[in-house]
Amino acid sequence: MPVAVEFEHVDFAYLHGQPVLRDVNLRVAEGEFLAIAGPNGSGKTTLLRLALGLAQPGAGHVRLFGERADRFSRRAGLGYLAQRTDLGVQAPATVAEVVAAGRAARKPFGRLRTTDREAIEQAIERVGLTALGNRPLRRLSGGQQQRAFIAKALAADPKLLALDEPTTGVDVAAQEALAELLEGLNRELGVTILYVSHEFGAVEHVVQRLVLVRERIVFDGPATALPELWHDPSHTHA
Questions:
Q1: Are strands 209-214 and 33-37 parallel, antiparallel or unpaired?
Q2: Which of 140, 151, 170, 187 suits 2 as a labelling partner, its CA being 20 to 30 A distant?
């Protein structure tokens, strides 16, 4: 299958700091739903930023749909949900306005046409927020806010959707609903999903593959294969 993301012998360290990632090799196929997990400080968010071209490796190569990630030319096709502290959830904008901004990113110098407005409405409908389209984002629950930002990404028709700690601050029911939503988007739209979290229980039953990171990739496979391997004393627990 065509490859969405590829790491080849990637190292990364912050300036004058300890290594964050060492000799990472990873291939993510187009249309795959991948969870990237690990404890705080394990390098998982750095791995995501490298995959999106938001940081450059100290050694090795990172490719995004065949292009060098930090020089990727089709950024409108990438949907990125940063951690909640960086999302601006207290902004006065409504759900519809937030989602429209995602569509506008595809045509920064053009006006939104009827097809664009239809795409905005469809994105809001897909995440189940049609009845809340005119409500200010800050008046929504944490789970609803996450759905609004997913709709913003969907409005741009992304080939890849990357989420960094999307379940932080939301309750268990919202986590489960988010997992079902993402599974549906992956199945129906074929969008590649990278889901980063320090725990993966909410999506364990829907992801196709799980990667555990502790500077290196210490596990890469189906989540169902993890328990037996993780009880092996030769492996370090998160």
A1: parallel
A2: 151
Torsion over CA: 39, 176, 95, 163 (sign): positive
Between CA 234 and CA 104, with CA 47 as vertex, the angle to 5 degrees is: 150
pLDDT of res. 234: 39
Q: pLDDT tens digits, residue range 55-95?
A: 999 999 999 999 999 999 998 889 998 886 555 566 688 99
Query: Considering only the top CATH level, what class is 1-74+160-238?
Result: alpha beta
Q: For the chain, which residues make up each domain, given as ranges?
A: 1-74+160-238, 87-158
Closest CA to 33 of 221, 157, 191: 191
3-state secondary structure the chain: CCEEEEEEEEEEECCCCCEEEEEEEEEEECCCEEEEECCCCCCHHHHHHHHCCCCCCCEEEEEECCEEHHHCCCHHHEEEECCHHHCCCCCCCEHHHHHHHHHHCCCCCCCCCHHHHHHHHHHHHHCCCHHHCCCEHHHCCHHHHHHHHHHHHHCCCCCEEEEECCCCCCCHHHHHHHHHHHHHHHHHHCCEEEEEECCCCCCCCCCCEEEEEECEEEEEECHHHHHHHHCCCCCCCC
The one-letter amino acid code at 228 reads E
pTM of this prediction exceeds 0.85: yes
List the end-to-end C-alpha distance of the chain, in Å, as a whole number.
Answer: 31
